[in-house]
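--- STAGE predict ---
source: upstream dedup step, 1 unique chain passed
mode: sequence only
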Amino acid sequence: MDIFDNVVPYIPGEEDKLETEAQKILGTVNRDATAFEEQKGLTVGATCTRVGVTDGHMAFVSLRFQKRPGPNAEEVKQAMRDY
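--- STAGE serialize ---
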C-alpha cells in the first residue's frame, strides 16, 4: 500500500519497540562506560499510527508523574537541557 494520502492505524511491533526502546534512550551509561543501563522506573504505554509526511517525524506525548504536583514547564525544560 502506498503511504501517501493514507493513514496506517497499526504497525505490528512498533508499539512494543517504542515501549522498550524508551527505557534505553532515556537511560544512562554504566560507571565503567562499557554498557547502557535502562531507565527501569519508566512505564511507557504506546500507540503508533503512521501518517505519510514529506519531512521529519512527529510525536504526541502525554506524561503522568508519580510526584504530585508534577514539574512545571520551566523545570521540564531545564531537565531536558541538563540531559
